[in-house]
Specification:
Shape: elongated
Strand content: 5-15%
Helix content: 55-70%
Strand order of the largest sheet: 2-3-7-4-6-5
Largest sheet: 6 strands, mixed, barrel
Length: about 750
């Protein structure tokens, strides 16, 4: 730096000397021209005086001679007077012309004199300019000397500061070496951070784990329904062939040989179904789910390779359930004697039901309703199968609709009830000074908008037992009351309001659930960079309240609590504001971003859009549940209704013979189906509440808590859809009732 200052001073000195030399040369040239002009003027003035004197003397002498001559001539001869006068006039004219010529010469000399004066003035101006340039060069020269002295002084100061820093660094090196020597005697700790400490990989693993939990429960529901459908179907098939089975037994066929016929049929049918399901659905459903999760993760949406173990387990379980149901139905029939099998099964004996003991109600029921009630409880196996199947259908519908409510409630509740601000202005805490913050405050509150200054930091919260670690955003309020105007702090259950004070931190509900903490427990906070390797004692904060929150995880503290826990005051560099509808957000953002220290300006609309995009991944589960519920309802209701009509064909034919109209016959049969649907749907709504709660807690992502409330409309829609499915099945089965001939009642099996 000293060499640079010296070079700069030398350069400025040369420039000043060059300017002085140029000014001196211009001054000398102007002085010489001025002296030359003055000499010419003196010479011309002298010449002019000489010309005047000479010419006037000549003219006077000539006049006097002429006068004398005239007088002489006049005296001698009057006639010569005229000639003399003429000659005098001629001489007078000649003198006048000579005088005019002298005057012209005099004017020319005067013009030359004026030109000389003009050149003299120009020379004086050039002299003044040269003098000014000389003074400017002198000033620059003096300034260069002053800067050289200042630079030398600054250089000396920085040299002393550098020497001081070198000394400090040497002391630090000595201290560090001493610490290293002290550590060398201790056992070293090695930290291995595997893939589980990567945020993206761990988030994907967590989401995949949630899908595993859901996949571990829902197949049980479908396998249960498959067992019920298989049992009822094969039971009906065996019952329809009672006479044929009795004939086989009478002819000497063994029970194993007869049973093998139905077992082979069950194996082939279920095997084909399992193969089709594995070939198609094992490719479609994973693609459907992965395509939804590709919104958040860069995952390939390609055909999924079939896992032999999983495929074999699913196929084996499906075929095994069907075969077991078939064997159970065939074994129950084969226990009878051939003579009994060749006769139709006797109708179940009627029994008094519990409803009959309620005399006020039973006495007011019509005959048709009494028959319907007795039939419902007479066929208990069909009753429970229908109830379980329809309840499962309704539960799945309610789970899907409740999950959709939970997803939509995230945005509506977080940005409609919990948050009352729509704009966040973030500044650089290291660069933003108080003047810049005051400018931002003036800009945000220019139209009377309210705002609150906060400090935000990303932290890692550790459970009291040190087991789990979760990320959160620590928000410190400069003014706690002002912040609570924008963040509604309340408990989710009961809605009791919470007050942010110096008693501790108010944390979000899901964070408390993940960490297993409650009010009064101590929460330990670490810096975000310490995840997977938490060192030191951290920063202890007492949990003063658990608030309702759905998006991200937060811990709100006051300035005093922050300073007490962190050991330093908070740097408030973030603004929460509520802009009015008429504010031009583009112009507002441009204005703020042009200020010193402002990094970002975000609006709630942008955040809402990003979260809606992210939460679309869970909509795939909703679609799967609704479609599965619809298929389940149709399969169960159609199968049970078909069995009911088939088993009671003689009864229905008898009703027609007795004069029942088609409408009355439909009401007699389908009234039972409708009642079973109502009872099953009611039970399914209760079961669906628990099922929806399980899906909600297992399907939600780490930084989001789904809504915990199922809307009343979802209950109504789930119940109504179940009734619609039941009605569609009833309409589809009306043709089968029409085709039952009245002659059936007159046929005898003997």
């Amino acid at each position: 730096q000293h060499d640079s200052g010296t070079a700069q001073l030398a350069e400025q000195r040369e420039q000043a000397q060059s300017a002085i030399a140029q000014a001196q040369a211009q001054l000398d040239a102007a002085q010489a021209e001025y002296d030359h002009a003055m000499a010419q003027r003196s010479q011309l003035e002298a010449q002019l005086e000489q010309a005047r004197a000479a010419q006037l003397a000549d003219v006077a002498a000539q006049l006097e001679a002429a006068i004398a001559q005239i007088d002489a001539q006049t005296a001698g001869a009057p006639d010569q007077l005229a000639a003399g006068r003429a000659e005098l006039d001629a001489q007078r004219e000649l003198a006048a012309s000579q005088l005019s010529a002298a005057q012209a010469q005099l004017d020319s000399a005067q013009s030359q004199l004026n030109d000389a004066e003009a050149r003299l003035a120009s020379g004086r101006a050039q002299y003044a300019a040269g003098q000014q340039s000389y003074e400017q060069g002198r000033a620059e020269y003096e300034s260069g000397l002053a800067e050289q002295r200042s630079g030398q002084s600054e250089l000396d100061g920085k040299r002393a500061e550098a020497q001081q820093r070198f000394a400090d660094a040497e002391r630090q090196l000595v201290d560090a070496q001493a610490e290293i020597d002290a550590i060398a005697d201790k056992d070293a700790s090695v930290y291995v951070l595997d893939r589980s400490k990567n945020l993206g990989a761990e988030s994907f693993r967590s989401d995949a784990g949630r899908m595993d939990q859901i996949a571990a429960v829902f197949p049980l529901m479908f396998f249960l329904v498959a067992a019920l459908v298989s049992l009822t179907t094969m039971t009906r098939m065996v019952e329809e062939e009672r006479v044929l089975i009795g004939t086989y037994k009478a002819l000497g066929y063994s029970n194993a040989r007869i049973t093998s016929k139905y077992l082979i049929y069950a194996v082939v049918a279920s095997g084909v179904g399992a193969a089709v399901g594995i070939a198609l659905l094992s490719q479609f459903l994973p693609w459907f789910i992965m395509n939804a999760y590709s919104i958040m993760y860069m995952v390939p949406c390609m055909p999924t390779p079939v896992n032999p173990g999983v495929a074999a387990s699913a196929a084996g379980l499906g075929v095994g359930i069907t075969v077991a149901a078939t064997w159970f139905a065939a074994a129950a029939t084969l226990r009878e004697r051939p003579a009994s099998l060749m006769l139709p099964r006797a109708p179940k004996a009627g029994k008094r039901i519990l409803l009959e003991r309620i005399r006020p109600l039973w006495s007011r029921m019509t005959f048709s309703w009494k028959v319907t009630a007795r039939n419902l409880f007479r066929y208990k196996r069909r009753f429970f199968m229908a109830i379980i199947g329809i309840a499962g259908c309704t539960a799945l519908l309610l789970t899907g609709l409740g999950l959709q409510n939970a997803i939509n409630d995230i945005i509506d509740k977080q940005y409609g009830e919990v948050y009352s601000f729509n704009t966040i202005v973030r500044m650089d805490a290291d660069e933003a000074g108080q003047e810049a913050k005051d400018a931002v405050s003036d800009a945000v509150g220019s139209d009377g908008q309210e705002f609150a200054w906060v400090s935000t930091e990303n932290k890692i919260a550790c459970a009291p037992d040190g087991g789990s670690e979760h990320r959160l955003e620590l928000v410190c309020a400069q003014d706690a009351q002002q912040l609570q105007r924008f963040v509604q702090m309340r408990e989710r259950v009961g809605g009791r309001p919470l007050t942010l004070d110096d008693g501790g931190a108010i944390i979000s509900e899901k964070l408390a659930s993940q960490l297993g903490v409650s009010v009064g427990d101590t929460l330990t906070l670490y810096d975000e960079d310490d995840i997977g390797n938490l060192v030191g004692d951290g920063h202890a904060v007492t949990v003063a309240g658990i608030m309702e929150n759905y998006v991200a995880q937060y811990a709100y503290v006051t300035a005093d609590v922050y300073e007490q826990a962190m050991g330093k005051p908070a740097d408030f560099a973030t603004v929460y504001a509520d802009l009015g509808e008429g504010v031009d957000r583009t112009a507002f953002s441009d204005q703020l971003l042009s200020m010193d220290g402002v990094k970002t300006v975000t609006y709630s609309d942008e955040t809402i859009g990003s979260y809606r995009t992210m939460l679309k991944t869970v909509d795939s589960v909703v679609v799967v549940l609704v479609v599965a519920a619809a298929l389940l309802a149709f399969v169960v209701l159609y199968n049970l209704t078909n069995i009911n009509i088939t088993e009671r064909a003689r009864e229905i034919a008898t009703l027609k013979v007795l004069g029942f109209t088609s409408r009355e016959v439909d009401a007699y049969i389908f009234r039972e189906t409708i009642l079973l649907s109502v009872i099953g749907a009611a039970i399914g709504l209760v079961f669906g509440v628990f099922m929806e709660g399980f899906v909600i807690t297992t399907a939600e992502v780490d930084q989001v808590m789904f809504g915990r409330d199922i809307h009343a409309a979802s209950f109504a829609i789930a119940f109504a859809l179940t009734m619609v499915f039941s009605g569609i099945v009833a309409l589809a089965m009306r043709g089968k009732l029409r085709r039952i001939d009245m002659v059936e009642s007159l046929k005898s099996n003997e």
